[in-house]
Amino acid sequence: MKVIFEHQSHPSGLGFLVKEYVQDYFTSPFHFHDLYELILIRKSYGKLYAGKRIMNFQDGDIFLFGPGFGHCFYNEQSFIDSGEKAHALVVFFREDFLGPGFFDNSGYIKVKELMEKSANGIQVRQTEELSVLFGRLVTQHGMDELITFLRMLHHISSMNTGNLAIMNESQSLVKLTNRDSERLEPVMKYVIGNFKEELDSKKAAELMHLNEASFCRYFKRRMEQTFSQFVNEVRITHATSLLVTEQWDILRICYECGYKNLSYFNRQFRQITGHSPKEYRLAFKGAEENLVMDSRED
Length: 298
Fold this sequence. Notes:
Elements: E1 4-6, E2 16-23, E3 31-33, E4 36-43, E5 46-50, E6 53-57, E7 62-65, E8 71-75, H1 77-82, E9 86-93, H2 109-117, E10 122-124, H3 128-137, H4 142-157, E11 164-166, H5 178-194, H6 201-207, H7 212-223, H8 227-245, H9 250-256, H10 262-273, H11 277-284
Parallel strand pairs: 1-3
Antiparallel strand pairs: 2-9, 4-7, 4-9, 5-6, 5-8, 7-10, 10-11
Helix pairs in contact: 2-4, 3-4, 6-7, 8-10, 8-11
């Protein structure tokens, strides 16, 4: 998983930059910035690897990442095969884009607190106002663009805590060197692209040109979890999505996520989410919420 440092800069030298991405699928590797990133997923779905978390993402999701927060959006193969374009609107900005110490003013303390929390990643509930403001940004320039962005920050920072989900509860995030991440990238793609099938640690080891035992030790040391734990987290993340978007029975969802044994699926689901599949479905039935796997302790 090649972690790269991406520096974004506005051609005019301003401290914030608006970009629109329309691609066959998201192609950025696991990366981080020296800037804050506010992103709206207009069209796409798949798995988001963010800090220590794996979670679902879909149309309408909004995320705020602080400087140095590693992340990557992986499209599922079904989205790639659909022929639809992945579409995202992104704002990159510096903490001092309005001048050094601007947000230290007591009148802007909520924005300051929001930016501090984004060090662990934040999922933001989309509102009609946010959707409208994002739409304006891509057509505006100069002062109009700045005013719209400030309204966005004000709107998000004024939300109650129920609309802002912290993605990593601790500062202890996985830290990889460029060499580590480059070696792990094929393994990440192998798991996320094939989790519905039988996954083999020997095959994963071959992708890194290691024997199986060496690979397992390396993976656990670098990722702070075993290869099988990572596979289970990807599969259970997918299961949480199916439980609230499909009317399938639990057994079918078990098979759709790559499990062959219902009892094992149930145990893994409870271990990762803190609930049984049935409890999870009932808790989210009828709720129009984005899925964030935040019930598991770091």
